[in-house]
Amino acid sequence: MISIFLVDNKLSREGLLALIENRRNGFIVVGEAASSAEAFYKLESLKPDLVLTGIDTPTVNGIELARQVKNISPETKVIIFSSKSDEASVLTALRAGARGYVLKTDSFESLENALNKVSSGRYYLSEDVVDKVIGMHYQGDGKAETLTDREKEVLSLVKDGLTNMEIARQLDISHRTAEVHRFRAMKKLNLHSQTEVMRYFLNEAEPIAAGAR
Q1: Could you tell me if residue 168 is inside a domain?
Q2: Higher pLDDT among residues 180 and 197, named by residue
């Protein structure tokens, strides 16, 4: 069982709790909080696998929570559950340490996908915000301008941790074609792993030295 801690207003928490428990999908809610302060207190003893937190209420600061969770419970991963889809909110959350960003307008299947991916150590971004984040980082980047549209699509899926086979299925292309696009895109940007791809999009890392592994 993957343990989840919910931090949001009462209505959101009740809805999430019902969805998660009714699906019987390998997740269990082990605690809840209506404020960041309450969450800090409870997380120190519970140390759940995942924290699913809002950022839209006066008492819940999911960004600060994401920053502090690393100190309170280093193994706990944070997913932001928000109505905000602007680039600034998404990037601020990810830079604070969140591993996922899901919109409140997404389907439960999308949320479930995020829970599965983040709990397994990968990143997840709502499809509705991916284009905004990627588009912002492509602007003015000389290397990125050499990417084809298909290579950009593939790279966005690499960022989410998809394998070549999963990318092929999602884009309705052959496994070999997905592999080639992935190789070319990452070679153009001198990236060698999903982590480096995510860091590229977040613009946190210094330029990676040629040939570095």
Answers
A1: yes
A2: 180
